[in-house]
Specification:
The chain is mainly alpha-helical. 81% of the residues lie in helices and 0% in strands. The protein has 12 helices and no strands.
Length: 337
């Protein structure tokens, strides 16, 4: 391991990882936990390893040759596999806002680029520093940036239509593939493409962060007021005369009395935990990291028990009374992180 190798390794590996660290520092609400970031980086690295064998198999089967394959099919294969990680995170409520979408999107790309550059460090005989400047500041940042933008676009569409489906995923994926393919064609000199990446990707991600911070503050403020109002109503003597109380009373004709009681308990717990989650975000925004107390853990476990008890049909009947959008469900995952 020579000094020259270490210099090339630093130039090839550190830019994307340092950029990712900067994104984490910009996250004032600390939406993304380090262990999740590390897991996503590892997933990206694993995808890079899988793509090595998959790409070689496709080249052998299609006889395209490495140059043509890297320009036309490799971007589709690689971006699709990386995108699957992001879609899985959104579907399982690990992503709630554009900030964590961008961070985790960049993380999967950074993991991919790190594994790819480690491979080239040990197989590429070209010692020229310019090669590693392009790979570290151009290719690696592109891998992360394209997936960060993909994640932000998918999440925006899923929020707008309250649905995560092919319509939300395919157009951003097509954009990611086209950008990656255009970069691989080297229509410009590699150093100029690297300069474009360093100008465009940070600017776009800063715009995403500013927009997300504004949306998050608005959601926390309005949601806090609505949850507090519903919680006070649940504990008031006039609840039975309210719209929510009458609605729950009518459910007695569709469910046994004990199930209706469980539904009321579930609604009360949901609102309490939603308020707690928004309080966690407010504390993090002020630099305080709250500790998840045993009472909150017990309430989370009780709510999970009630979900199984009342079943999917019971939970669907509560939707008119509670916020159950993808983002509102995400806040409950926030407490368990």
């Amino acid at each position: 391991m020579t000094t020259a190798w270490l210099v090339r390794a630093a130039i090839g590996l550190l830019p994307a990882l340092c950029f990712l660290a900067g994104l984490l520092l910009l996250d004032s609400y600390k939406l993304v936990r380090l262990r999740i970031v590390i897991a996503v980086i590892a997933a990206g690295a694993a995808i890079a390893g899988a793509c090595y064998f998959l790409n070689q198999a496709i080249i052998d089967a299609t006889h395209l040759g490495f140059s043509n394959y890297s320009r036309f099919l490799a971007p589709l294969v690689e971006e699709s596999l990386k995108a699957a990680v992001i879609v899985g995170l959104i579907r399982t409520r690990r992503i709630g806002f554009l900030v964590d979408a961008s961070v985790l999107g960049f993380a999967v790309g950074a993991g991919f680029a790190t594994a790819e550059n480690l491979y080239y460090l040990n197989t590429n005989a070209d010692p020229h520093v310019a090669t590693w400047i392009v790979r570290g500041f151009g290719t690696a940042i592109l891998h992360g940036g394209v997936q960060a933008i993909f994640a932000a676009l998918v999440l925006t569409d899923a929020d707008r239509r309250s649905r995560l489906d092919a319509r939300a995923v395919l157009p951003p994926l097509a954009l990611a593939v086209l950008v990656h393919a255009a970069y691989n064609r080297f229509e410009l000199a590699p150093i100029y493409e690297t300069m474009l990446v360093l100008i465009i990707i940070p600017a776009l991600l800063m715009l995403v962060f500013v927009r997300s911070e504004r949306a998050l503050r608005s959601w926390v403020g309005s949601g806090f007021d609505a949850d507090q109002e519903l919680l006070e109503l649940l504990g008031s003597e006039t609840f039975s005369q309210s719209h929510a109380g009458k609605y729950l009373y009518e459910l007695r004709t569709r469910f046994p009395g004990e199930v209706v009681a469980d539904l009321l308990c579930y609604l009360h717990l949901y609102v309490e935990l939603a308020l707690r989650a928004k309080g966690v975000l407010l504390l993090r925004d002020n630099g305080i990291e709250p500790v998840l107390d045993e009472e909150t853990r017990a309430k989370l476990q009780e709510m999970q028990f009630l979900e199984r008890s009342v079943g999917r049909a019971g939970l669907l009947t509560l939707q008119p009374l509670m916020h159950t959008s993808r983002r509102d469900l995400w806040q409950l995952y926030l407490l368990g992180k």
